[in-house]
Amino acid sequence: MLAFIVRRVLQSIIVMLVVALVSFSLFNFVGDPINNMVGQETTQQQREQLREELGLNDPFAVQFARFVGNAVQGNFGISYRLARPVDVVIAERLPATLELAFVSALFALVVGVATGVYTALNRSGIISRVIMTISLIGVSLPTFLIGILLIWVFAVQLQWLPSFGRGDVVDLGGWRTGFLTSSGLKALILPAITLGLFQLTLIMRLVRAEMLEVLRTDYIKFARARGLPDRAINFGHALKNTLVPVITITGLQLGSIIAFSIITETVFQWPGVGLLFINAIQFVDIPLMAAYLVLIALFFVVINLLVDLLYYAVDPRLRFDASTARGH
Amino acid sequence: MRLGRALVSSVALGIVLAFTAPAEAKTLRYAFQSSINSFDPHALNETFTLGFHGNIYEGLTRRTPDLEIEPALAVSWEMVEPTRWRVKLREGVTFHSGHPFTADDVIFSFERASSDASDMNGKVGSIVEVVKVDDHTVDFITGAPDAILHAEWDTWYIMSKPWAEEVGALDVASVAADREHHTTRNANGTGPFRLVSYDPDGQTILEPFEDWWDEPEHNLSRVVFQPITQTSTRVAALLSGEVDVAEPIPLQDIDRINENPGTKALTGPELRTIFLGMDQWRDELTYSNIKGKNPLQDQRVRQAMYQAIDIEAIHRVVMRGQSLPSAAMLAPGLVGFPEDLERYPHDPDAARALLEEAGYPDGFSLRMNCPNDRYVNDEAICEAVVAMLARVGIEVDLLAETRSLYFAKVLAQGGYDTDFYLLGWTPSSFDSHNVLYNLVATRDPERGRGTTNLGGYSNSRVDELTDLIQTATDQEERLALIQEAWQILHDDVGYIPLHQQALAWGVRDGVNLVQRADNQFVWRHVRID
After folding, report:
1. For residue range B208-226, what is the model confidence (pLDDT) as tens digits?
2. Which of residues 49-68 of A touch B (CB under 8 A)?
3. Would you say the pTM of this structure is higher than 0.95?
4. Which of A303, B211, B233, B325 gives 20 to 30 Å between its CA and that of B268?
5. Which of B169, B54, B45 is nearest to B119 (CA)?
6. Hey, of A163, A166, A183, A277, which one would you mutate to test binding to chain B, going by the most B CBs within 10 A of its CB?
7. Under CATH, domain B25-262+509-528 is a member of which superfamily?
């Protein structure tokens, strides 16, 4: 068990180093940051001096080594755009993204499971067909368009919900939350739907397919033969047995919800790390881009590690195989 | 029990007050396309940043809605000797921190603005020394006579020296310093508004400064600034009434905003001139099929390209009428604008004849560099130019890309890597000299001259004139020199000016404001009904 964890942690470190290396080599293609940091009349000497001071003239290997060396000590440098330490800026913005990701994951899970079960049980009902058609739109429309569409309907036409921002936030010891104010909660609705819609349709289709599969099995038929009420069969037996893959998928998707919140955050001017990253790309804010990509890699690595460990804990066969393998 | 009742009634009173206060309160909700990234007044010389800071900080002068210079922190100034200006400072002015404004603050702000990490060196570049005469009088000593010394005082902002010492803000906030500076998130000026809270990609809140020296013309009690980077979201926020001013708005949305009840589009000329530049310094173009020589070094070829361009079509179709075609490299109304200059007429036949005369009857090919997110409809302008040049036989390979990539190629650090490019320029001093010095005069890295003369145009008479214009103190003589320089540039076809683009702001009804042509949004003129 311990050897397994140590091996996985070592692999994770290699993964993160590779991510850092790849992202660093990409920065050569996003342009020159200097022009965003000075005015149009700044002389060539001043620009050169700034390049020199920022170490942008150093060879790639030196820049990368310096980044890794500093990052190991917890120093991710100063953001070119905001002129503040990158780790502080990201820590300030992370709550916004995590709250949005949490709400949209919850929304996707609850609505996804409910509609999935419904459409599986009432396969040929009209409502089911409508839901299935809508879900097709949800899968095929790009997030950007869905966001704009929702803004047009609910912010511009109906004027029920805000089109941008996070509303009023309450500071709880460095964690700025939007959960405690009505404007904060209202501001969450449209971005959460936009971000969660794709996951919702994914979960719904998964639940529906699994449900249909399970409903055909012998033990369901046997349960019916025993005269158990529909409610007990559908929810007690069928749904329970479909949930294992659903939970796995949802867990893995949480990482991508955080990573792909970039577009949703940009459309809704949501002040999280995704918007921070988009602005960093436009500004060629190299320290911030590097730290963000490493952070996202860390999220994925940690989630994968946890999932692996969960399997290890849940599935006794894995443990058994390992111990017998050692025995031989 | 009695205490309880007292509490209840005081809470009730509080509620009543809370509900009555907003009825009186006038809040300006302002959305712009990018964030304000620093409150250090000397860190970035860029229009939006300077304009935003101008609501908090003040210079010795300020500009009226018509961009005339008027006194601000200075009450008067005069050239007592050719190289000495005497400036009387306003008395009774305090900073937001409560510190009084004195001559020491001007000297300190001069030293800070001319330090290495400052981006404002150009605004105070000709000053050698600032000498304190008394607490409210200073002398500016210049190296050579400078007739336009005060032209950029309106955006050279004054900081309080004792405050800077207290908070440790003596140095300009520079990213290279590897730490956060106090002035990145804190501001202390003498201006009409003071900074209350700051969140770069969220809301930034400002309130009127009660002890401001001038009589407020505005009736605001609060300003909420919110960057909205997505254009469609910014327009939606205006249409839904969530913001009062949205800037900028795309030209194609102007009609929709005007048709929407409660909003209107405010358009007006901007000072920025959009133009095309051509590589005239290489002996061979980098991306052309003509080898061994550079066709753009021939004046006839440049004029052919000029005459191939149908500026009316660009004005009508690409800019939807929101541009002012220009024969000059600066906007009307700026000092030294050449009234008499006229564009070479659009004439494809003449262009073909000129090309044949120059020895290119079959035309030639070259590459064009173009930003696609910097100026109004920049990429569409370039595409139109490419099509128009194709009609006279010049085959253009268009490379349109995001500004970070574009500028990295065409500016000096990219080795001026371009045959042909589109660029825009606003002279920050509102004076011809700025354009001549930066764009037209021969490149001279030692002096910092011609830094943005990307095509390397060079004419020794223009260089001479540029120097003379800097030092000439007689207005009439100076204007004559400027006219001569503009005429030479026009005859040489050193550049192909296109137009001044239009400003387009979305404004909610009931919000009265001044749209200044330099694209600074000055809140002290805002009145909300």
Report:
1. 999 999 999 999 999 999 9
2. 49-51, 53-54
3. no
4. B233
5. B45
6. A163
7. Periplasmic binding protein-like II (3.40.190.10)
